[in-house]
Amino acid sequence: MVDDPNTPRPNPFSDVPIEIKVTVGRAHPLVRDLLKLENDSVLTLDRRVEDPVELYVGEKLIARGELQEVEGDTTGQLAVRLTEVADIKNEL
């Protein structure tokens, strides 16, 4: 049987797992302050609790969202509800 050239072929990379980093915020301490960190130290971030988190693949920002607890999960599992997604399909 001959393949129909109009039938889209599955992308061979669609089953490859990737790592997505979720960034809650950044800190900019001085080295002397970093060296003083110990258990129970507080490191202030540049974000507030209600600010969106950012999702990255490598160094590429792909989405923003809100942290939330997985519904029905009693262990406190975190998830991200996406509120803004980059148009990555057209950037490849």
TrEMBL record:
It comes from the Bacteria. GO terms for molecular function: cytoskeletal motor activity. It is a peripheral membrane protein. Keywords: Cell membrane, Cell projection, Chemotaxis, Cilium, Flagellar rotation, Flagellum, Membrane. It is found in: Cell membrane. GO terms for cellular component: bacterial-type flagellum basal body; plasma membrane. The keyword Magnesium does not apply. Signal peptide: none annotated. GO terms for biological process: bacterial-type flagellum-dependent cell motility; chemotaxis. Pfam families: FliMN_C (PF01052). The keyword Membrane applies. This is Flagellar motor switch protein FliN. The lineage of its organism: Bacteria, Pseudomonadati, Pseudomonadota, Alphaproteobacteria, Rhodobacterales.
